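Late entry, written up from scratch paper. The run itself happened at the end of the previous shift, but nothing got recorded in the book at the time, so transcribing now.
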Amino acid sequence: MSLIENPNVGVLHEDIGFAQRIGQSFDMKGLTVHRVESDLPRYGVVLIQESLLYRVTPQVPYIVVGLEDTDRPSEKAIALIDRDALGYVSIGERPQYIAAFTRNVLVRLQNKDKEEDILRVGSLEIDQVKMEVKLKGKRVDLERTMVFKTLCFLAKHPGTVLTRNQILDGVYGSDNLNIGTRIVGLHVNLLRAAICPEVIRTFRGVGYCLSAEET
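Output as recorded:
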């Protein structure tokens, strides 16, 4: 079983046999290869022939496939890698290498996505997807969703003094029209009680700041 969340790999290449030649090696890595012409977003990553890139603007992670049997990318391929491509392989590479390279790219992407889901400030760890908070490895229970969202907003700006209006806008967005800024103070007090009193500093007349030093 593949540990990759989206093991589908698209191949956009004029050589019809290319996807077939590399398919078995990809299967051994827990990946599935599909020859594609459109609907790129459904794939975890797409291998795109270098000369076809002028036809498409990939909105998905992609790897450049060079036309020549060389491990030295062209100047155009280098420019693409510098811009937004995730790497380069030549069509003459062994299928096992292409499969291993592609899998490593997918693992890096998957780990990056997971890291972005986690906010860390000092010893405070906040999982935005699972809505879990840990302090020094121990779980902290926050009973209210908006209190959790307040913590997330503060954690995205550690060490920064945020006004009550900034916090209100960041947590409630356009739904804050009928909500006063006093709710921010209530959320902060609940966070202090659940985590520790010093975790959020008050700047009188200004707002609040999540302190990394106190966590």
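The chain has a mean pLDDT of 81.
(Scratch paper discarded after transcription.)
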